[in-house]
Design a protein that fits this description.
The structure holds three protein chains of three kinds. By secondary structure, chain B is an alpha/beta fold. Chain B has twelve helices and 15 strands. In chain C, helix 2 runs antiparallel to helix 12 (about 290-310). Classes of the chains: A mainly alpha, B alpha/beta, C mainly alpha. Chains B and C meet through helix 1, strand 2, helix 4, helix 5 and helix 7 of B and helix 1, helix 2, helix 5, strand 5 and helix 10 of C.
């Protein structure tokens, strides 16, 4: 029985990672950059929702919508100011470093505005938890909502990328920016749209992360951000279903290693599994293996 | 491009040398222009008192060190505010032996190396005694340096034993072993539980320190530790496994030698899984009722051994809490209280040792060291606090329980 | 890399001369008492970060592989050497400090280098971001293990546990050397600025010599085109491993210097986690990948910056630091900025040549 409980705990933790990883993988897949500031956009989403719902006392739906709007705008601004000028830089690492700068900036701004005190986030999900097997197993409402959200977003993203014109444009940009431009695709606008979508996803992830683990500080986003990055790589970065599977697996592995091996060594075990997976399958679980041409 | 790089690097290099030289000369100017410091936002703490700052001879310069950015910022900011509050109060009441106090607080980001940098900055500023560091590891690193300079150091909250390993360093808070042993003793003597689980942070000095002494102390008590589960700084959102294990082991009391942010999450998660053991914690738990928007009913019945409780009805604590709230708009945590006391302890030691600001740092250090073992201070974190020459504080821990959303004595 | 021999020699002399000049200036400042305590305290850390930046530049700039686990090697160097020094201090108190520190440096470098080889063998098969994430993972594993490692030495031999200090079953708790999250306290403070500069110079000489040697050219050919390098018979794996392990060993040396500068050593996310690895990467990228002198200067500037900001804007220190970092990155790397800079430079020189703009992004 405890096995099933652990499994459910693992899935609920994993679903949060998966949700964050979707945003990561989306940006990486198209813009080919690791957006280290993604975790901090999540934190901004959480704070926006907190301010709207708890401080100003508005309805949670308004909070979620507003945080999506704020994060989307923030994503666009960050992209325009900090990333776009470096897109053509001689090394792709340059933009990675500015992303780190943006991450510091957002954390310290939030620290100055909201202070270091942890805020307790009121869950936006009012669903009752599901009780199975005579109440021995409980699945919390947030978990169900997170998983459903994840699946909906995943399906929507796959539909958007594969079936719409804009999505096709994104794919084209990710394959070859120069060729895409020649085909009449506005590369700048497409990449900007990618960041907008990625940041909107971050806002939703932020709200659900804080609903599941209701503690909000300026540093809330950074560790889940890194974990989600690991999850995205795990599943094959750039692959949308890969991010979902990677996230869930990461959560389950983490909980199982805490439960059955050692709670002190859980971090080490999670990373060791990641290493083994990448050594066996160097592009992640669902990653495409592109052979380098001479 | 290459040529430009060369120019940039030369420019940067010369800027660096200039910066070094600038720092050198800065020091010379500083003592005569100490007033300039008080114009700097944040680092200036001293504005309320009449401008005696220009005259370095007439003021005691107290340096504070602690994290005001980064994950541990909440502790450092509390200490910074606590020091400021006490300094303002003392100055408004005429200072110490007629001398004003002046404080300067530097950020160490909860890192040993940055903490030493902060200490050196304070030395350049002319600090004569140090309140800090707030967290244990940086405190030990700074302790080494203050020992070299024989600068008096009083840490409000650095609780590892090594924080006060030299004779110039003293603690306001209990040491970790002290807290762990006292908790084990309290649980055992009051027969609070038979089976105890511990959830602790294995990557944190404070938490693992208390856990160890608790486990040692538990051996001689009539309860049993049935589960000891750890988490780490990188892994502190989900506690379902730790709680599940405690539940499966049949623990009727869970000991939480951790800080209140994690405790808030643990209480929430335990509630959602329908696990309701007794909770017991140490001073790190204090502050849980101050978490904004926290459902305090979850903390109902939590017991903690703490020297300070913000909602205490005692005169001193009450005055402090009111003053702090009106000044900073938030409830003080135990770190702020420790720091507030630290300033008053320094005041008492100065008075008892007849220290005056014209003495050298080392002379002040010697005088303060001698005075510390003589004085007895009634503060917000304890009545009649006295100190042994080892630096450890001697005060009675208070056991409080959270009842109806407020702390009350047990 | 079309530098002629004399040009590289000149560049190397400038790099080393710069370090020596800084050393001399600082010594004069110390001698005349014109240096602040803050600067004095920062001298050893500056050497530590400069060594780290130079060593990571070997992996990132010269070998062309992104490593996000450099702090892990530093951590190994720091802990192994601090352990060694404490043991020596305990059991051979008569040993001169100089000899002890010299041996400690060797121990730190050896352990870090060895780990570099062990990690390098599997890791270097991967490419790009996957390699980055695996190195990050190794760095985190090292930090996690160190945090729960309990190691003590007494007459009965070495005691070892991954659970708690009680499991060591030792009579005398003073003889626990690595005490889990509490790490190592009381490491002898053997580091000083002179040793730091000497180590930095040795690092520079090793790295610069390697770059301009036959091996170095082989390594750079792997960076520029692995397949071409392989096809002309360069043993790719061997050279990759060589660069990676030398870089790791040098990071270990930086760790030794770090450990013996502070009396307490713990593995926190701040000093040995991925945050530090990323910080070192920032030095390298800001200073220019493959540009040894640049990364050294970037390390010094970025370490000094937040400390110097203390006196100016205490409250907004880290915020301003972040903004300056972004601006510096844009200034150094954005093609538009490079173009603009070159135009300005040309204008200043009074000969506006259109050629320089075309050369951007070499």
């Amino acid at each position: 029985m405890s096995f099933i409980t652990y499994l459910i705990n693992g899935i609920s933790l994993g679903s949060v990672y998966a949700l964050i990883a979707l945003g990561y993988t989306m940006v990486y897949g198209i813009a080919k950059m690791l957006n280290f500031a993604h975790g901090d956009v999540i934190m901004v989403g959480g704070f926006t929702c907190y301010t709207v719902c708890s401080t100003m006392g508005m309805h949670p739906v308004v909070g979620v919508l507003l945080s999506v709007v704020v994060c989307t705008l923030l994503g666009i601004v960050i992209e325009r100011v900090a990333y776009k000028p470096l897109r053509m830089a001689s090394s792709p690492l340059a933009v990675l470093i500015t992303a780190i700068g943006v991450s510091y900036l957002l954390q310290n701004l939030a620290l100055l505005i909201f202070g270091a005190n942890a805020k307790s986030f009121t869950s936006v999900v009012n669903m009752k938890s599901l009780k199975l097997a005579d109440g021995q197993i409980t699945v919390s409402g947030v978990t169900i909502v997170t998983i459903v959200t994840c699946i909906v977003i995943m399906a929507a993203l796959m539909f958007f990328i594969n079936k719409t014109k804009l999505g096709q444009a994104m794919l084209a940009v990710s394959e070859d920016k120069g060729a895409a431009q020649l085909m009449g695709i506005n590369v700048n606008a497409t990449i900007c749209l990618t960041f907008a979508i990625g940041s909107a996803l971050a806002a939703i992830a932020g709200v659900l992360l804080c609903s599941a683990y209701p503690s909000l500080t300026p540093y809330t986003g950074s560790m889940p951000g890194i974990k989600a990055f690991v999850a995205a790589v795990f599943g094959g970065i750039g692959s949308v279903p890969g991010a979902f599977i990677g996230g869930i697996l990461l959560g389950v592995i983490q909980i199982f290693s805490q439960a059955y091996i050692s709670s002190q060594m859980a971090d080490a075990i999670v990373f060791a599994v990641l290493i083994v997976v990448l050594l066996v399958k160097p592009t992640g679980l669902l990653g495409k293996n592109i052979q380098e041409k001479v | 491009m290459k040529k430009f790089n060369k120019i940039v690097s030369v420019a940067l290099a010369s800027a660096m040398v200039l910066a070094m030289a600038g720092c050198g000369s800065q020091k010379a100017v500083e003592s005569s222009e100490a007033a300039d410091i008080s114009e700097i936002p944040g680092s200036s703490v001293e504005e309320s008192s009449s401008q005696t700052a220009g005259n370095a001879e007439g003021t005691f310069k107290i340096g504070g060190i602690g994290p005001t950015t980064g994950g541990a910022a909440i502790y450092g900011i509390g200490v910074m505010n606590g020091i400021q509050l006490a300094v303002d109060e003392i100055n408004a009441a005429g200072g110490v032996n007629g001398y004003m106090l002046e404080a300067n607080f530097q950020d160490d980001e909860h890192d040993a190396e940055k903490s030493v940098n902060a200490y050196n900055t304070l030395k350049d500023w002319g600090a004569q005694m140090i309140i800090g560091s707030v967290t244990s590891t940086p405190c030990i690193a700074v302790g080494e340096k203050t020992h070299e300079d024989n600068m008096f150091q009083l840490t409000p909250s650095g609780s590892a034993v090594k924080c006060a390993q030299y004779d110039n360093a003293f603690q306001v808070c209990f040491s970790d072993p002290n807290q762990g042993a006292a908790s084990a003793q309290y649980i055992g003597e009051n027969a609070l539980a038979e089976k105890v689980a511990v959830i602790y942070d294995s990557s944190d000095v404070y938490s693992s320190g208390i856990y160890e002494s608790f486990a040692k102390g538990a051996e001689s008590q009539n309860f049993e530790i049935v589960a000891a589960e750890a988490f780490t700084a990188d892994n502190k959102t989900d506690f379902s496994v730790q709680l599940q294990k405690a539940k499966d082991a049949g623990a009727d009391l869970v000991f939480l030698p951790i800080y209140y942010q994690e405790s808030a999450l643990i209480l929430t998660q335990a509630d959602s899984m329908g696990y309701a053991p007794k909770w017991f914690s140490c001073d790190g738990m204090d502050g849980i009722l101050g978490v904004e928007n926290f459902d305090t009913s979850l903390a109902e019945g939590v017991m903690l051994l703490t020297p300070f409780a913000a909602d205490s009805e005692e005169e001193k604590s009450k005055n402090f809490t009111t003053a702090y709230e009106s000044k900073y708009g938030e409830t003080p945590n135990q770190f702020a209280a420790d720091a507030y006391d630290a300033v008053y302890i320094i005041k008492a030691a100065i008075e008892s040792g007849n220290v005056d600001p014209s003495m050298s740092v080392s002379e002040i250090g010697d005088a303060m060291k001698a005075a510390m073992t003589q004085i007895s201070v009634d503060g917000v974190t304890g009545e009649a606090m006295t100190w042994a020459a080892t630096g450890e504080v001697n005060k009675a821990p208070k056991a409080v329980v959270i009842k109806d959303g407020a702390y009350s004595a047990m | 890399m079309k530098k002629t021999m004399s040009k590289t020699l000149r560049s190397n002399i400038i790099t080393i001369g710069l370090v020596v000049a800084v050393f001399v200036i600082v010594q004069i400042l110390i001698g005349t008492g014109n240096i602040s305590s803050l600067m004095k305290g920062l001298l050893v850390p500056l050497c530590v970060y400069a060594i780290l930046a130079v060593s990571l530049n070997l992996t990132v700039g010269i070998l062309g592989e992104l490593s996000l686990g450099h702090a892990g090697f530093m951590c190994i160097g720091a802990f192994s050497s601090a352990f060694f020094s404490k043991c020596m201090k305990m059991f051979l108190p008569g040993m001169p400090a100089g000899l002890r520190f010299f041996l400690a440096i060797l121990v730190g470098a050896a352990f870090a280098g060895l780990l570099g080889i062990l990690i390098g063998i599997p890791v270097l098969r991967l490419k790009g971001d996957y390699l980055a994430i695996v190195t990050l993972a190794f760095g985190e594993i090292i930090k996690n293990i160190i945090n729960i490692l309990y190691l003590g030495v007494d007459e009965a031999g070495v005691h070892f546990s991954l659970k708690s200090s009680m499991d060591l079953h030792m009579e005398d708790s003073d003889k626990i050397i690595i005490n889990g999250a509490m790490g190592i306290t009381g490491t002898p403070g053997d580091s000083n600025f002179t040793i730091g500069i000497v180590l930095l110079l040795i690092t520079l000489i090793i790295v610069l010599n390697l770059i301009h040697s036959r091996d170095g050219r082989a390594i750079m050919s792997i960076r520029d085109n692995t397949i071409a390098a392989e096809s002309v018979g360069i043993p790719v794996t061997r050279y990759k491993l060589m660069a990676f392990s030398i870089s790791a060993a040098l990071a270990g040396v930086a760790g030794v210097l770090y450990a013996h500068n502070l009396s307490t050593l713990t593995a926190t996310p701040k000093n040995f986690g991925y945050n530090m690895s990323i910080m070192i990467l920032v030095f390298v990228v800001l200073g220019g990948m493959g540009n040894i002198r640049g990364s050294m200067i970037a390390a010094v500037v970025l370490t000094l910056l937040p400390e110097l900001l203390r006196g100016v804007v205490s409250d907004y220190r880290m915020l301003i630091y972040a903004i300056i970092l972004i601006v510096m990155m844009l200034f150094n790397w954005a093609p538009k900025c490079i173009e603009w800079r070159e135009k300005t430079v040309a204008m200043i020189r009074g000969k506006l040549s259109p050629k320089s703009a075309a050369k951007e992004g070499e």
